[in-house]
Amino acid sequence: MANFFPRWTNWLPLKIAICGTVVVCGLTGATWYYITPKYTRVGYQPIQPVPFPHDIHVAQLGMDCTQVQKDNPKLEPVRASWKTGQPVEWVQLHRTPDYVYYNHAAHVNRGISCASCHGQVNRMGIMHHDKPHSMAWCLECHRHPENFLRPETQITNLDWKPDWEKPAEFVAKYGQPTEATDDWAKKQKLTQEEIGQTLKERWNIQPPLNCQGCHR
């Protein structure tokens, strides 16, 4: 009886198995590289030339960024930099790819706090990479900015919480969304979403969702 299938099909199962193995290994490798914290740098905590525990200076002592102990020997690299004009060789913590356009002013001037992207810096003993800064993470904020917006006076207040805002004073200053059915000034407290919705409409915030918004 003649063979029903041509001779070349004898190797077909093996070829399919090899191709399938390559595809699975490729997908596994890509997932491991691009999705894990190692790729997003979350938790990255390099040793800097000048140690500075933010949690002690900022959170406990309430010191401003411009206040330092001038005679502290640990600050010698800073003093040497001032005398010689040579910059301190800091270890870069956050790296934005060359193909990504990011404007700090566009964010901090429209209600996005330092803490939203860099975490509670004032609570960190040693600075570390707190947020993933991945494209999906950025798009989540662009799609729902109301979850992150805060009054412009609270941008650098890393401990700010929505329930700090007094509803009557907030509504008197910023108003409330047009679709709101009740008087928010009479509320006991405002939620992050309510504050964000108000500021989003007040400041006409429409973050770009197309590729050109971040890739130029």
**Coarse shape:** flat
- Helicity range of the residues? 25-40%
H/E element sequence: HHHHHHHHH
Strand proportion: under 5%
Can you put this structure into words, describing what you see?
By secondary structure, the protein is mostly helical. It has 2 domains: 46 residues, no CATH class; 121 residues, no CATH class. It contains 9 helices and no strands.
Question: What descriptive keywords fit this protein?
Answer:
216 residues, 38% helix
Lay out the secondary structure.
Blueprint: H1 12-35, H2 37-40, H3 54-60, H4 76-84, H5 104-108, H6 114-118, H7 135-143, H8 167-174, H9 192-202
Summarize, please.
With 216 residues, the protein is an all-alpha fold. The protein is built from nine helices and no strands.
